[in-house]
Amino acid sequence: MSHYIFLLVGAVLVNNVVLVKILGLCPFMGVSKKLETAYGMGAATTFVLTLATGSSYIIDHFLLMPFGLEYLRTLSFIVTIAAIVQLTEMVIAKTSPTLQQTLGIYLPLITTNCAVLGVPLLNVANGYDFVESLLYGAGSAVGFSGVLILFAGIRERIEGADVPTHFRGTAIALVTAGLMALAFMGFAGLDKYQ
Amino acid sequence: MLSQLFKFHGGVKPASHKDLSNQAPIVTAPLPSRLIVPLHQSIGGTPRPVVAVGDRVLKGQLIGEADGWLSAAIHAPTSGTVVEIAMHTRPHPSGLSSQCVVIEPDGRDEWIAHGPADYAAMTPADICSYLQRYGIVGLGGAGFPTHGKLTANPKVAMAELIINAAECEPYITCDDRLMRERAEEIVRGTAIFRDMLKPQKVIIGVEDNKPEAIAALCAAVTALAEPFTVVPVPALYPAGGAKQLIRVLTGKEVPGAMRSTADMGVQVFNVGTAYAAWRAIGHGEPLISRVVTLTGNVRQAHNVEALIGTPMDELLRLASPNPDTDGIIMGGPMMGFLVPDETAPIVKTSNCLIAHSARLFPPKAPEMPCIRCGACARACPHELQPFELYWHSRAKDFGKTQQYHIFDCIECGCCSFVCPSRIPLVQYFRFAKSEIWAREREKKASEEAKQRFEFKQFREEREKADKAEKLAKAAAAQAAKKAAEAAAAAGGTVAAEAPAAAGDDPAAAAKKAAIAAAMARAKAQREAVQAKNTDELTPQQAHEMAAIEARRAAAGVSEAPAASTDSRTE
Amino acid sequence: MDILLAIAIMALGALVLGAALGFSSIKFKVEGDPLVEKIDAILPQTQCGQCGYPGCKPYAEAIAKGEADINLCPPGGMEGVQRLADLLGREVKALEAEEKPKQVARIDENTCIGCTLCIQACPVDAIVGAAKQLHTILTQQCTGCELCLPPCPVECIHMEVVPETLDNWKWKYPVVSIHPASPVASPEKEAA
Amino acid sequence: MFAPAPFLLKDASVSQVMTQVCLALIPGIAVYAWLVGPAILVQLAIASFTALLAEAAILRLRDKPLALFLSDGSAVVTAWLIALTFPPLAPWWLVATGTLFAIVVAKHLYGGLGQNPFNPAMVAFAVCIVAFPALMSQWPSIGLKLPLLDQLNIIFGLAPRVDALSGATPLDAMKTALKLGEGQVNVAHLLENQDIYGNFAGRGWEWVTGAYLLGGLWLWQRKLITWHAPLAFLAAMVLISGGLWLYRPESFASPLFHLLSGGAMLGAFFIITDPVSGCTTPRGKLIFGFGAGLLAYIVRVFGGYPDGVAFAVLLMNLSAPLIDRLTQPRIFGMKEGRP
User: Fold this and answer.
1) Terminal CA-to-CA distance of chain B, rounded, Å?
2) What is the spatial distance between Cα B380 and Cα B8, in angstroms, rounded to a whole number?
């Protein structure tokens, strides 16, 4: 049990997918200007990422491995993720047009969110079983969403700050992300303690 | 007796400086050289002038007729000649002008025939229109027509009638002196309000730094055997804000979004208003003068009974201002404003003139960035987060300011008072508020424009259809004619079908036109209904506007000593 | 053989996913385009055509389709561009034309010949008058679109800046501020 | 030119606030200097000098009034907090680098005073401990009080950094003990025998933290800080450390030890009460303080770095805007207010 907890804590905090693994920076920078959008993007990514890790595992173990087609891993993962994203987009368009609009281009772009591909591949590399994969996926997704939402909160405040002209916008956002990563380094070693 | 007093959050205790002017009795100001009476002195419609240039008017004669329900009449403050009806600078932070009637006094101060009203025979509706015709408005600062507040909300039983005698702003003592000298008339005026609103309780709230006034009021209440309670409230700025006073006396909190305190079963009137109402009913005198405190950088601070329309500089001279006076603040030092033009006249809501000097009010230190220390939030009587409001107002992020309830701000100035960074917070909030209002206006205008545009397009379509129909009819007629000719030539049944076939088209076109016309009617109806809706809203909006105007009236822009910039430029 | 198997498996996967997507595209079909309405709500509805489209709605449609840029509306000003950019997640651009203060048209009563041409041009019916009669402009309704200027044969219409009155007076931004204001209003705000 | 109301102002200013914060630090500094030697004063001077220099340079670059902002005292407060959190015998360039980073990146890139989302002093500490872990862990043993000249030589790199300096702090010792595992070293036993490890009322760091507590209480009494954040911070520390201590006293140190060691008191009263980077609503402050206390304990006990206060504060800093938004207090006349 404690093994799973540490895995989860590790995925959320210690090896935070954005701030430590530096994956998924595109939506992290792009959809963090407003809290509302960040909530939406976080939810969408959590959904996609968890689903993607699960289905990738199934595809990997029941379709690719039995036939020795591991070399098709990246390709088939991408296709699966793309389909899931498409599905999510349709559901969101139906249920919440405003969310779809605020997420804008970033919703279809979850497809190319490297975190979404990266986490299933890391799962394979780490040799996680199905439950572990799902946990790691969900943990990474929660870590991503959490950091995204916190970041959006900070950016909304920085929006009103008197930032030097040349640092306005993405520049100061990147500096902030760097300082956030610095703060997250404080978690280093937590997952090792058992 | 009322046993329990409540507290409101925050508040500040600036030095009161009231003893400068509260020692001397009220004196009647001499007639000024001329009187500039603005027509628009209260919230609501601008009264229509009913005199012409050259007319001779008597003291108390109607010169501006109330325009609409939410408006109050304007009267000649003295006898004389109307010399001008023109734009003059208003006592307003903008320094803009509005329509004024200028009267040159003839020195005789001759009253128009007047006498007490037959109060016993008057119905509440009569009293309302009487007060409106006699120009009675709230004298506390907002200038809301009094009859508007006396029309009680039929749905909510009136629990408390509060007479606001807190007078919490520093320097101002006009209500204090009024209570000391004319307590009986105040109590009689209060009785009128009581008769109108039929509240369960009548409370007169006075800040406890005015013991003489409290004593005078108590004596008057006992003498007249009225069941009113005079309650001393702790002196804490802004205890005299209507909502704060309600909170202190009754424990009720009136939300900022609520248009009228009557919805909570409370109504508040200023002491001066009660006095003015009694002068109107008991003596037949319209509101043509008021008590004004002259104080600040002057040698003889005192209160005067001044005619509405007296130019401020002329009035302030009565208190012999010191030579280093460099401006006049109308209202108190917390919410007043430096008048942009010192020849602007006294209006019904001018309670105090403070001679401004750099010695008395040192120029502000340069504004520093906000350090979010939260002193403002601790001082805010409305429990807002002024630093957040400031942050977003400064960045012109008005949506966020509304999320942080900017319209609940009463602009009392407590936040600016305590701010260690000396940020003119209230100024930022006023800026944000007026930007939001402007935006609303623009939005309304653009919606209207859109409707009109769509209607025009629709009309053009219809006209085109009409034209097409006419053409079709003409063509059909022509075809029929030809067919008839052909029939005449050939005879037979074939010809009979032709006009019918030709007639098909015009029929369809006519049908189309009919549909279009019906749609137009429906649309017009819809629009009519909408228009009606907005008509109905108007009094409520007017209420809102009232609140807005009140804050505006209490606000200040002006020229200031340039010293505050000096230290910024290294 | 291996390659055939691989192709078969990938094809199978594609088939399954395709079927799922096809099914959900029917199940979750969305009607209409609420975006146009939202854009239209931001536009000032002057119907002036300065954007090159016949009215605000067509311009809104063009923006929604991605055919038009968001900086073509001078009456909306920089603020309109900003709000469009926020709505659409596009980059803020400087206005194509210069921003003008709000104006209304005014007819010179001495020169008007009552030709009704301006009445036809006005998109919001803000000009009243009849043939050979003096025309006048309903200032309240005028959007300042300037569409009535070109048709007038005697050039009797001119634009006037709306004066500041007590009704439209605004509190100014506090000028004692030490730091330059608002990064929000500046065009160099990032795109993302 | 505007001269908006109110025309009366209370006598308060930013520099008054900052001066009082500095004053409140003085008892702590005095005890520090008495225990460790005058090196700390040198470090304070280095940090202040660097901070003011950096501040002046940036203000110059940004065309802001130099005198006004230099005299507000905020840079000095940051500098002092940096000097007090760094090891007293750290090389001068380490302190200078940290200060420079704090003032330039953490403060002025965001627009300067009042606009930084992260506490500059804690950013400096975190940057330096990540970049120079060894140097940042060399704490002198308290008993070893070198003369001023030797201390100066060490700070300015003129003398070799003797091994004797790098005595482990109490926290280090405890953590090592914990890492070694059960049965190997008994934490309670370890701490008992070494009064320099902060055994209560011995001659150790607890005197410094106690002096900080004193300064903090004074700040609270002056109404410059409210009780919410410090109390929540200390409560969180007591709760988690107390719980674990009762659960396994041989592996975990007592709450008293945790309260009196490392940056706990400095953090509770001087760092998490920074209104700029912290929470401002009452409930927000409670959450902020509690979160910081919890994280500080977790990082200092289970994490990889000697003390957790800096990381805990930074982590809470980055959550502060969100917490503030979610904990907006109700406003006058409203049942519950939340933007």
Assistant:
1) 61
2) 10
**Burial classification of residue B457, based on how many CB atoms lie within 10 Å of its CB (0-12 exposed, 13-18 middle, 19 or more buried):** middle
Nearest to B272 by CA among B134, B138, B133, B170: B138
Q: Which residues pair with B305 in a beta bridge?
A: B28, B291
Q: Which among C45, C122, C165 is the nearest to B447, CB-wise? A: C45
Instruction: Kindly state whether D4 is in contact with chain B, defined as any CB-CB distance less than 8 angstroms.
Output: yes
DSSP of D113-145, one letter per residue? Answer: TT--SS-HHHHHHHHHHHH-HHHHT-BPPTT--
Chain position carrying tokens 């609140």: B547
Q: Do C175 and D2 touch (CB under 8 A)?
A: yes
Strands B201-207 and B160-165: parallel
Identify the chains in contact with D, defined as 3+ C-beta pairs within 8 A: A, B, C
d(CA A146, CA D316): 13
- The answer to whether residues B355 and B321 touch, using CB atoms and an 8 Å cutoff, is yes
pLDDT in tens, chain D (339 residues): 346 778 888 888 889 899 999 999 999 999 888 888 888 899 999 999 999 999 999 999 998 888 888 888 899 999 999 999 998 888 999 999 999 999 999 999 999 888 999 999 999 999 999 999 888 877 776 655 677 777 787 788 777 666 555 555 667 666 666 665 554 556 666 555 554 444 444 456 778 888 999 999 999 999 889 999 999 999 999 999 999 989 887 778 888 888 887 788 899 999 999 999 999 999 999 999 999 999 999 988 888 787 889 999 999 999 999 999 999 888 887 764 444
D8–B170 CB contact, under 8 Å: yes
DSSP 3-state of C186: coil
Q: Which residue has the tokens 């730091």?
A: C179
- The whole-angstrom separation of Cα C157 and Cα C154 is 8
Residue pair B221/B187 in contact by the 8 Å Cβ criterion = yes
Q: Can you state the angle between helices C34-42 and C77-88, rounded to 10 degrees?
A: 160
Where do runs of H (alpha helix) occur along chain A?
2-9, 25-30, 35-59, 73-95, 97-103, 106-109, 114-126, 130-158, 170-184
Q: How would you classify the pairing of strands B289-296 and B352-356?
A: parallel
What is this model's ipTM? 0.85
Residues contacting C17, CB < 8 A, separation 6+: A79, A80, A83
Say which amino acid occupies D329. Answer: P
